[in-house]
Write a structure and sequence with these properties.
about 270 residues, mainly alpha, 13 helices, about 75% helix, transmembrane helix, ABC transporter permease, membrane, ABC-2_transporter-like
Length: about 270
């Protein structure tokens, strides 16, 4: 690890600690927000569970398999938004001119933004973790998975977080030209992630292709799940997922560096 990268990581950790101390000044708001977030997530899955209970399965995917898809993408999103939530809120920096102040600091802009308002999303972690354990327990009892699936699942949660971060960063970068990006984020992040909670086979071919190529949320959970919990395709799927995460991160970072050169100050 280069000394420059080590310095940036140390600075990132320091900024996170500062952000956490600041947020813990309002502990009630922190606890209430975590509880409400967990309730929202649980209600989303309960709606899916009710449908599955009534009809039995979706395109041959059982309730445990759907729970697996749901929990993996939820935990990947939670990991991404825990460590880089402000990327999702870049619009406020562009509109309020806060980005101008950050540009004057001797640190990379992305590094300065990411740790701001850092929060551990306890509600989402507990909810996603509970559904994941419940789903994998059901799959284990049915003989669909073994202990290696646990290791692979932890791996794809991390790669999934990288993919979701990359999608979020690329969307945020468009704001350097448009300033307003909230509606676009609703499509590229929120709607795409919601669609990714289900097997892609339930969608028309054009839509499933879009969720694999244009907005690749399918590589967060669906594609690796075909191998991990269904035994389809082959172990090469995990390599493909890691490669997709690496490509997405590299492309989004290059796009970010290009986009920031096009930024025009609110005073210009």
């Amino acid at each position: 690890m280069s000394s420059k990268l080590k310095t940036w990581l140390e600075l990132y950790v320091l900024l996170i600690k500062t952000s956490v101390r600041s947020r813990m000044q309002y502990r009630f708001n922190f606890i209430l927000g975590s509880v409400l977030a967990a309730l929202i997530q649980i209600s989303e899955f309960l709606m899916i569970a009710i449908v599955l209970y009534k009809f039995g399965a979706i395109q041959g995917w059982s309730i445990y398999e759907i729970g697996y898809l749901f929990s993996v993408i939820t935990l990947s999103k939670t990991l991404y938004r825990t460590f880089a939530d402000e990327v999702h809120h870049l619009e406020k920096y562009l509109v309020d001119g806060e980005l101008d102040q950050i540009l004057t600091r001797p640190v990379p802009v992305l590094l300065a933004i990411m740790p701001r308002n850092f929060r551990i999303m306890i509600g989402e972690v507990l909810q996603g973790g509970f559904i994941l354990c419940w789903s994998m327990n059901g799959l284990w009892r049915s003989g669909q998975i073994d202990w290696t699936s646990i290791v692979f699942t932890l791996f794809i949660i991390v790669t999934g977080a990288v993919i979701l971060f990359s999608i979020g960063l690329a969307t945020a970068t468009i704001g350097f030209w448009t300033t307003r990006i909230e509606e676009l984020q609703t499509f590229t992040e929120d709607a795409a992630r919601t669609a990714g909670q289900y097997p892609l086979t339930i969608y028309p071919k054009w839509m499933s292709s879009m969720l694999l190529i244009v907005i690749p949320v399918g590589f967060v959970n669906y594609i690796p799940a075909l191998y991990i919990i269904r035994g389809e395709l082959g172990a090469w799927v995990l390599v493909a997922v890691a490669a997709m995460a690496t490509i997405c991160l590299g492309v989004s970072m290059r796009f970010w560096r290009f986009g920031i050169t096009k930024y025009q100050s609110t005073g210009s």
